[in-house]
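hey team, just a heads up i'm posting the complex here instead of the shared drive bc the drive is being weird again. everything in one block, sequence lines first with there labels, then the predicted structure for the whole assembly after. its two chains so it's a bit long, scroll down
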Amino acid sequence: MIATPYLLYLGHSSDDIGIKTSRGLAVFRPDICVGEFRHDDCPLTLGLPRMGFAEAVAAGARTLVLGIANAGGTLGEDLIEDSIAAMEAGLDVASGLHSRLKDEPRLVATAARTGRTLHDVRDPKPNIPIGTGRFRAGNRLLTVGTDCSVGKMYTTLCLARAMQARGLKADFRATGQTGILIAGDGVPLDAVVADFISGAIEQLSPAREDGGWDLIEGQGSLFHPSFAGVSTGLLHGAQPDVLVMCHDPARTDMRGLPGRALPGLAECIAANLKVAQLTSPQVRIAGIALNTSALGEEEARALCARIEDELALPCTDPYRMGVDAIVDEVLNPARSLAKAGEAV
Amino acid sequence: MIATPYLLYLGHSSDDIGIKTSRGLAVFRPDICVGEFRHDDCPLTLGLPRMGFAEAVAAGARTLVLGIANAGGTLGEDLIEDSIAAMEAGLDVASGLHSRLKDEPRLVATAARTGRTLHDVRDPKPNIPIGTGRFRAGNRLLTVGTDCSVGKMYTTLCLARAMQARGLKADFRATGQTGILIAGDGVPLDAVVADFISGAIEQLSPAREDGGWDLIEGQGSLFHPSFAGVSTGLLHGAQPDVLVMCHDPARTDMRGLPGRALPGLAECIAANLKVAQLTSPQVRIAGIALNTSALGEEEARALCARIEDELALPCTDPYRMGVDAIVDEVLNPARSLAKAGEAV
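-- predicted structure starts here --
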């Protein structure tokens, strides 16, 4: 577990997309973010108090989160120097970059000398078991997608919040670096060795007997030829009772693959149900989460209504319209069970 | 590339199944195996001349292959001592064990001192690309299976041999440690990081324009909940023109998962074609390879005939009956295309 609260690092960044991990934390966990660290040339802000390292420690911060991604995910000289200064001031350092903190001798030496901890959240824990597919108790929901980066983490977090707001026990289970920093724990699934994909998820979301829900963050897409192996192992390991399909209606090509079309929603839902059935024969789909940020309000609502009508499932933009309609369907499966009877 | 010819290690082993990598080499590559090394307490033999290390070097051997697997895949004291002696005598050492040679300081020190090379064939090469799914030229065949360990490597090697015997260019592309030692090259797919499964296969079997075939060794099964992610990425990366389904009719439960039934052949073929279509829309199935070793001759032939009739595809035991019927179907797709028209 990574010690909280966090100081969020922006550094010298001027890349609004590159700071998405820091922003994800500021949006979803403002309760554990005491401030942001940025140099004078950084034009960005997360709307948090700007702080130096000593100031952040005085405000209670425990860990500096390097929540930025430069090209290639490397650890530049500026990040190294700032991390050393942060440890000298009393902060641990956590990073989701491809380059590992533990591979930089100066950081390792400083951590040893100052007694601080380095967290490489892209490093899977050791001793991940091989998956078994054996039935386990509990209620599990997995988000899936027509493509990568269509809002699976965001939707999963919104669903967890909405279920908690109804008094249910509901835990977000993170499978990517931003999600892991938000949850304080999780498995960086894209970095797990291939034989252990489903086993890593069985370990992340073990049997639970308390009537609560595990909401598991999806990765990739069965229709993305780069990453469908990860998505397949995740479906099998999650043993989901319920799927929620995430989609970006403005996306014309699969991410990173110009010319490759996205699957249709109905086709994508059917394929995901089919794969999931191997370990969860009763799996059902409870709704569709759209990212309608490219559409006007009226257009977005019309699109959701049309998809609801076509697929006989709740369809919503979690950011704009909340996820209550999907939570209703998760908890009261009448509608999707009827649909599954027709479609499968 | 690993230097050949090989000296095959049996050591102190009395486990007939544990020496399967050494045996695979003796069976498929007798041309590159000069002898076997075993201690006096080893009751097993591969039928090769028994040799000490110096004797093997004198006979031309270049590499000692630790083609055995003890429980856990660990590198015991006896293997370490024998490997050191082999290097002192002038041999490189290659291993497919989980435990890596490079993690044993005594082996690393001896290799440095003697100028020998250590080969951990379970270590993927660095810089594997992310898969793209983009169309590439060439003819590619992939073996798939109803389960793990149902003869995919064996079948793939037999198909390569049979095609070569017909004067065709045909190359075996290895994806497991035994296959890699047989071919001298390949990718240990189960050890690749999850995001790179399909990319590793695109790299292993690149575009070819010479009219020849790549015969790609399959792994796992879409119906094995531990490893289906690997199988999925392999199907996408292989971009196969042709699949061959491997099956063990004596198997009652999925390997390692008592109580989990195997899929039916028709169901398994349909699922593999469906997944493969993402990167190879025209993919077809060219036959079924059975391991009938548990059956009598007559029973085996009757079973193949029945499956041929049911699925309208060639069905053969490669060991007993050869693979000519499948090669015919690979090269002349009339029959399977007709079938695909009905089934898909």
